[in-house]
Specification:
The complex is a heterodimer of chains A (303) and B (315).
Chain A (H helix, E strand, L loop, with lengths): L14 H14 L3 H9 L3 H18 L1 H4 L30 H32 L5 H16 L2 H12 L3 H29 L1 H8 L4 H37 L11 H10 L9 H24 L4
Helix pairs in contact in A: 2-12, 3-5, 3-12, 5-8, 5-10, 5-11, 5-12, 6-8, 7-8, 8-10, 10-11, 10-12, 11-12
Chain B lengths: L1 H28 L4 H6 L5 H11 L5 H14 L12 H36 L3 H15 L3 H15 L15 H34 L3 H8 L4 H38 L5 H10 L3 H29 L8
Classes of the chains: A mainly alpha (303), B mainly alpha (315).
Chain lengths: 303, 315
């Protein structure tokens, strides 16, 4: 933030007025942090990614309104090619694949919206633990190293082994996969910030470890963590689809993007168009987050 | 070098030790009794107890763990409950398929990754850069299994050029085996390539602003020589790290790719083992996956130091 309140002369009589008008302005215009983030959505990548994401989220939210019949409504023709009534064609039971894809998208978004924030918050907290206790900090890093040793799908397999396939195990698998990503990022920011002079100054002034962590280190670590969160959403989408495609994710008849590919794979000879619709939506979803993360990386991250 | 290994090995052993505990405990936290599953639903209690004793499951967890670890060190991986065969035999049977897939996939990954990266990093015209960027952005958003499914549709259904289901091992018939291997390996390699390309491109663009590049240009080096001799060579280190990090992913991705292309490799074995709660098989395969990831990480660091004299392994 470029405004430095400490240097403002306090003896000037009009200070009070000045401060109040400033506060009023602050309420109207977004503050510097919000502006930096909004700037990301003015870059070409941010615009394209943002528009795709908004459309997909709107579609998923409005699914019960647009398709009130639900995802399980069976029709006449099975495995039909795309046509005007069924834009993505129909599946083996004559259900509309577009409808199932939109409900599948809903499922994917519901997993992401729960799993990714959990992962970001817990991972960041674990990474910043080193600010309070040196020992706990390095211990946590060793644990994160162990998690990092597990390739994504293998970790998911372990979770499925314990609690069985389904929404919950996908959320847990995604959340745990992300822990080392955010934990290590937070740790890197922590180590970097701890070297800064303002932290030394705060420490010399007798500010407690906790206050330094919450007031100084955390705010300065937020930017790279948010960029990483957008990158990680792409990984989360792949984990859901990957586990579902080998039959260990969402179980049919409930649709998810991965489950649709799992079933569609079996009919790839008779009806290759089956998997194209869900594939398209999957790619659009992951591409929107990938573009947004690029845009955030370019505008938000301070070099 | 030796100093570096001596420093690294304790932490690797620590990771492996912790993994062995996790791999051992996880399957046992799963609901259900494997002895009951092996005995069948209409077995008497005595039969189930006899099977449990034969499997060693009546001992305490700690003794079971020590038994397993002791066997592991001696090279005895135990027996699979479900297949009723030694685990090591099951793994050796399937290993060739997965190793072939991983090797060819890593060739694709390295060639395509570095190729795409150089295209983006060396492009001088704006159009070329935008094209390389867009291809990369699209590929990053496409996971290996989607590439696989699209390749199946394209080459297996629409044009019917290559076999898309099943496998023939390379040692049996190299020509036909290679045809079976081509698409799954391409899918796996193509999906992992853009991460490498992205990193190489960023590093190359950053390197172009360095003083030594200006110096080379001032001395009259041609743009081609500048790109390959000066910029690319100093930027390769970053992509080697990226490649090394992805070897572990290669085996993770193989699990899904094998399912899509109906290949009978280790990935399929682990999925079957998870579905049938085959403890010993699952825990050995988890150990193997982590071991591969850890070793490739170590090799990466060694190769990196060999390439870049500024990095000293002793540090």
């Amino acid at each position: 933030m470029d405004r430095n309140d400490a240097t403002r002369p306090v003896t000037v009589p009009s200070t009070q007025v000045l401060v109040t008008t400033r506060n009023a302005q602050r309420l109207l215009t977004p503050n510097a942090t919000a502006r930096r983030y909004l700037a990301a959505f003015r870059t070409p990548r941010g615009i394209v990614g943002g528009i795709i994401l908004v459309l997909l989220v709107a579609l998923a939210l409005l699914a019960p309104v647009i398709f009130p019949g639900g995802y399980d409504q069976q029709g006449r023709g099975a495995l039909a090619a795309p046509n005007l009534t069924h834009l993505f064609g129909t599946d083996e039971l004559g259900r509309d694949i577009l409808v199932r894809t939109v409900y599948g998208l809903r499922m994917d978004l519901s997993i992401i919206i729960v799993a990714v924030p959990i992962s970001v918050v817990v991972g960041t907290a674990l990474g910043l633990l080193g600010a309070l206790s040196h020992f706990a900090g390095s211990f946590v890093q060793r644990v994160l190293d162990i998690i990092l040793g597990f390739p994504g799908v293998v970790l998911g397999l372990c979770i499925v082994l314990i609690i069985g396939p389904g929404w919950t195990s996908l959320v847990i698998a995604i959340a745990i996969t992300g822990l080392p990503v955010f934990g290590r990022q937070a740790r890197a920011s922590l180590l970097e910030q701890e070297q800064r002079e303002y932290v030394t100054a705060a420490r010399a002034l007798g500010v407690s470890k906790r206050t330094i962590l919450v007031r100084h280190i955390l705010p300065n670590s937020v930017d790279p963590i948010l960029v990483n969160a957008a990158v990680f959403v792409v990984a989360a989408i792949f984990i859901e689809a990957g586990l579902s495609i080998i039959g260990l994710g969402i179980q049919p008849p409930e649709p998810s993007l991965g489950t649709l590919l799992n079933v569609g794979m079996r009919f790839i000879e008779q009806s290759p168009m089956y998997i194209l619709g869900p594939t398209l939506v999957l790619i659009l979803l992951s591409m929107s987050f990938s573009l947004i993360s690029d845009a955030l990386n370019a505008t938000v991250t301070r070099k | 070098m030796l100093k570096f290994l001596a420093k690294k090995i304790p932490s690797i052993l620590l990771v492996l030790f912790a993994t062995s505990i996790i791999a051992f405990l996880l399957p046992r936290m799963a609901p259900g009794d494997p002895a009951q599953a092996v005995a069948g639903s209409d077995a008497t209690e005595e039969q189930v107890a006899a099977i449990r004793a034969a499997m060693g499951l009546d001992k305490s967890l700690f003794v079971q763990y020590l038994d397993w670890l002791g066997g592991f060190v001696r090279g005895d991986l135990g027996m699979s409950f479900v297949y009723n065969r030694p685990v090591s035999e099951l793994i050796l049977d399937r290993a060739e398929s997965t190793i072939e897939l991983a090797l060819l996939a890593s060739v694709f990954m390295i060639v395509l990754g570095i190729g795409l990266g150089v295209m983006g990093g060396a492009a001088r015209s704006k159009t070329a850069r935008v094209v390389a960027d867009s291809v990369n952005t699209l590929l990053i958003a496409v996971p290996a299994f989607v590439v696989g499914l699209l390749l199946i549709i394209l080459f297996g259904v629409v044009w019917r050029l290559l076999p898309v289901s099943g496998e023939v091992s390379l040692s049996e018939d190299f020509g036909i085996g290679f045809q079976y291997l081509l698409l799954p390996a391409l899918a796996l390699g193509l999906a992992l390539a853009p991460g490498i390309a992205r990193l190489l491109q960023t590093t190359m663009l950053a390197t172009q602003g360095e003083d030594f590049v200006d110096l080379a240009r001032a001395k009259g080096a041609s743009p081609r020589r500048l790109t390959y001799r000066h910029v690319l060579r100093t930027s390769l280190g970053a992509s080697i790290v990226a490649i090394g990090m992805r070897f572990g992913e290669l085996f993770g991705g193989a699990i899904i790719i094998e399912a899509i292309f109906a290949r009978n490799g280790l990935g399929q074995l682990i999925v079957q083992a998870v579905n049938s709660r085959d403890y010993l098989l699952v825990q050995v395969l988890i150990m193997a996956a982590v071991l591969i990831a850890v070793i490739s990480q170590l090799l990466t660091e060694v190769v990196l130091a060999a390439m870049d004299p500024r990095i000293r392994l002793e540090d």
